[in-house]
Amino acid sequence: MADALPPADPDAPLTGASEPPARWPWLVFAAIALALVAVALVSAANLGRSRAVAGVRAQAENAATLAIAVLRGELEKQRAVPLILARDPDVRRALAGGDPHALDTKFSAIARETRASVIYLLDTRGVAIAASNWDEPASFVGSDYSFRDYYRKAMAEGGAEQFALGTVSNRPGLYITSRVDGAAGPLGVLVVKVEFPQVEADWKALGGQIYVTDRRGVVLLSTVEAWRFHVEQPLPPAEVAEIRRSLQFGAAPLAPLPFTRRGDLVEATGLGGRFVEARTAVPTTGWTLDVLLPVDRAIATERAGLQLIAALLLMPGLGLAAELMRRRRRAQARRLADARVKAELEQRVEARTAELAGANARLMEEMAERARAQERLSDAREELAKANRLATLGQVSAGVAHEINQPLAAIRTYAENARAFLKRGAPEGAEGALGRIVGLTERVGAITDTLRGFARRGDGAVEPTPLADAISGALMILDAPLRQSGIRPVVTAIPAELRVMGRRVELEQVLVNLMRNAIEALAGAPPAHSAAPALSLGVRMEGHEVVITVTDNGPGMSEAQVAGLFTPFRSSKAKGLGLGLVICQDIVARFGGTLTAACRPGEGCVFTIVLRRAP
After folding, report:
1. CB 298, CB 52: distance < 8 Å
2. Single pTM value for the model
3. Which of 204, 221, 340, 426 is the most exposed, having the fewest neighbouring CB atoms within 10 Å of its CB?
């Protein structure tokens, strides 16, 4: 009998009928892999650009909100000055024929305190009779400004605002006017000129470039000096001629801004790179504020990060696909090897059967016994063949199980990593950093939302306002000063349903002003009787009215100081303007309430607000 064939080695090189398949499947796989990598990198680059532009645009919008808050703060402060001065008795006496020189020094002092560029008074002819720069070579006294639009509009409508280039100083600024009325009609016009160098300096701290345009698209304010009095679009000749006639912008060329817009980005000549633009209307004015933030670095960073993530995600997938393809080809090769072994075995069995048949013919006399022996041999051969097949199958199965254990573990690891990457949106190790970035944003937002809400214009009709919300908002705004001063305010419990007639933003403004004054008083002098600095805010209801008290144990004030608290331009502070409490009293009066003060030297002060209770 011939020796039995050994089992086929699955790792042995194949020959003859088991030649390996052609290499073209690997070439196709490589082409598909390269195409996937190219598509992934291009998609990551496009997504990175979109995310970077969106992120920088959000930053630009936040910067625009802060820039508008800075500008509006300066505007609102200066707008109150001509309104208050128009009611000043000295102004009326000067316009009625009195000596106007007394106003010169008064205007000069007020201009220094308010940081106004110049304050001056025009008579009904438009001639300046008093000015804060009366003692300067370029004094406005005696100059005729009847040609100015701000004078003519103020005489006709009671007030006006115009941004223009000074004909004497040759410096740009906003002219805010208020008409002075008498019993027989208009007496004159009070003018305050405001310049914005500090506002533009504060804008530079926000990053990027910021500029403000009027209704015609003329640049009024800008962090780039060369852009001032340029235009966003060429103006019609008739409009240019009118601007030249009014001398509003002097001899400015009114040339277009050096911008090139490419899709959603802006390129500015002289600055280099590309910028994202955020445009916002400035409330209470006809102006528009634009913020330009550079975006090239953000795009490069975002693209690199996303392309790295795409590469890290593709590598395990392509590696897994290559391994599966390799195993499939090896399984196909094993099937070919098994078929070859089976064919050879069948050939040898047939040859041995023929040999036994010849011997059986020569030994006819032993046919019966040989027949039984042949039967036993056939049975044994069948069992041997079966055992051989089972052994071969066992070896193949064990080999396959051993070789796929580690790839299966790697597949599990790659799957878990891929799932983590997809959940985190970043490679391993980046999740902590990304989490910290998400936490800081949420906080400024909260401050900006608070600042933005606090910076919103508090206009509209008087309406029922939750008192608890207004007090909570004021305490949130003053949280940092209170903690720095070591003061823990005591606040009376306020029913959530208690409402007063008013407007929340302005009511918060009054409470912030009163509590801030108390904090400054407690910080500027030791509290009474050497006690710890104390500040309390009380609320009580008296019939149809709600009484709010702000009490401190500071040094207090004399009766003379208390008598002048609500007089314009009189302040007990070294650098005070004397308008804060006047404005607060005016706000409360518009609500239909009252604001009073009671102080004693060495015993602190109590400010009392009485408001109507909402029905």
Report:
1. yes
2. 0.48
3. 204
* Residue whose token pair is 């220094």: 112
Euclidean distance between CA atoms 205 and 63, whole angstroms: 10
Pick from 558, 573, 566: nearest CA to 608 = 566
- Render 124-167 in DSSP notation, one character per residue: TTSBEEEETTTTSTT--TT-B-TTSHHHHHHHHHSEEEEEEE-T
Q: Would strands 499-502 and 535-542 be described as parallel, antiparallel, or unpaired?
A: unpaired
* pLDDT bucket at 376, cuts 50 / 70 / 90: confident
- pLDDT level of residue 190 (50, 70, 90 thresholds): very high
Whether the predicted pLDDT of 67 surpasses 70: yes
DSSP label at 492?
A: -
Cα 430 to Cα 297, 353, 436, 438, 523: the distances in Å are: 20, 73, 10, 12, 46
- Contact criterion met (CB below 8 Å) for 259 and 251: no
3-state secondary structure of 497: coil
Task: State how far the alpha carbon of 321 is from the alpha carbons of 34, 325, 345, 408, 604, in Å.
Answer: 13, 6, 36, 13, 81
Q: Residue 392: how many CB atoms within 10 A of its CB?
A: 16
CA-CA distances (angstroms) from residue 254 to 204, 232, 240, 250, 266? 24, 9, 8, 10, 20
